[in-house]
C-alpha cells in the first residue's frame, strides 16, 4: 500500500514538474525571432485572437496562452490594435501588451493625392478603418465645419510626410491630428516665405 502511494506521489510530482516546465518555457520563449505583427480587429473574440497567435506560436506557447487567457479574463479585455509580437519578445511580454492594449504605432507616409477617393483608398489599405469610412467622413461638410475646414480644401491639411499613428485611429482622430500637424507646419516664417515666393497664394493653394 505504501509502495503504491509512493509511486502515485512520484507520478504526480513528475506530472506537476512537466506542467511547470511547459508553463515556464511557454512564458519565456520568444514567439518569433523575426519581425512579426498581430492585427486584432474591433469585434474579434478571444478564440479568434488565440487562433491568430496559434499560427505563430509553438505548442507549449499555445497551451500557455490559453491558460493566461482563462486566468486573466482576457476575453473581457480584448483591445483592438496592431501588436508587434516578434523580434525575440517572450510570450509573457506579448500577452501583457495585448491585455493592456499597448499596440505598436504604424509609420504612415502620406503621398501627394489629388482627390478624397485617392486619400481614402490609401488610408483604408494602411489602417483598420475601411476606405468608405474615411471617404464618408472627409466628404461630410457639417463635420468638417466643426474644425473650420471647407470640404473643397480638406485635403490640404494632409501634408505629405511620415507620421506615427495607431492602426486603430479613427477618421475623426486622424483629421484632428493632421490639423495639428498642418498648423505646426505653417509657422509665421513659412507663411512669410510663401508670400515672398508666391505672392497672392494661400496655404491651401500652395
Reading the helices and strands in chain order gives: HEHHEHEHHHEHH
How far the N terminus sits from the C terminus, by CA atoms, comes to 93 Å
The overall average pLDDT, rounded, is: 82
Categorize the overall geometry: elongated
Q: Low-confidence stretches at least 5 residues in length (pLDDT < 50)?
A: 3-23
SSE blueprint:
Layout: H1 2-28, E1 37-40, H2 46-54, H3 59-72, E2 81-84, H4 91-100, E3 106-109, H5 116-126, H6 131-138, H7 141-145, E4 162-165, H8 171-185, H9 188-197
Antiparallel strand pairs: 1-2, 3-4
Describe what you observe in this structure.
The protein is built from nine helices and four strands. Mean pLDDT is 82; it is low at 3-23. The protein is mostly helical. A two-stranded antiparallel ribbon has the order 1-2. It has helices at 2-28, 46-54, 59-72, 91-100, 116-126, 131-138, 141-145, 171-185, 188-197, and strands at 37-40, 81-84, 106-109, 162-165.
In short:
This protein is mostly helical. The chain contains 9 helices and 4 strands. The longest helix has 27 residues.
Q: Which key phrases capture this entry?
A:
206 residues, two-stranded antiparallel ribbon, 4 strands, 9 helices, two-stranded antiparallel sheet, mainly alpha
Amino acid at each position: 500500500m505504501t509502495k503504491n502511494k509512493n509511486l502515485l506521489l512520484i507520478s504526480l510530482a513528475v506530472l506537476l514538474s512537466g506542467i511547470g516546465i511547459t508553463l515556464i518555457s511557454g512564458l519565456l520563449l520568444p514567439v518569433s525571432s523575426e519581425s512579426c505583427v498581430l492585427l486584432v480587429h474591433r469585434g474579434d473574440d478571444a478564440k479568434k485572437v488565440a487562433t491568430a497567435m496559434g499560427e505563430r506560436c509553438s505548442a507549449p506557447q499555445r497551451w500557455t496562452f490559453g491558460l493566461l487567457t482563462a486566468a486573466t479574463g482576457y476575453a473581457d479585455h480584448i483591445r483592438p490594435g496592431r501588436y508587434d509580437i516578434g523580434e525575440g519578445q517572450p510570450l509573457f511580454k506579448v500577452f501583457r501588451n495585448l491585455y493592456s492594449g499597448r499596440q505598436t504605432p504604424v509609420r504612415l507616409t502620406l503621398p501627394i493625392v489629388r482627390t478624397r477617393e485617392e486619400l481614402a483608398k490609401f488610408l483604408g489599405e494602411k489602417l483598420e478603418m475601411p476606405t468608405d469610412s474615411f471617404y464618408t467622413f472627409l466628404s461630410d461638410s457639417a463635420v468638417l465645419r466643426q474644425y473650420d475646414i471647407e470640404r473643397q480644401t480638406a485635403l490640404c491639411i494632409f501634408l505629405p510626410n511620415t507620421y506615427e499613428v495607431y492602426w486603430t485611429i479613427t477618421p475623426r482622430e486622424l483629421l484632428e491630428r493632421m490639423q495639428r500637424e498642418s498648423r505646426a507646419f505653417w509657422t509665421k516664417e513659412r507663411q512669410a516665405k510663401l508670400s515672398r515666393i508666391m505672392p497672392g497664394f494661400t496655404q491651401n493653394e500652395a
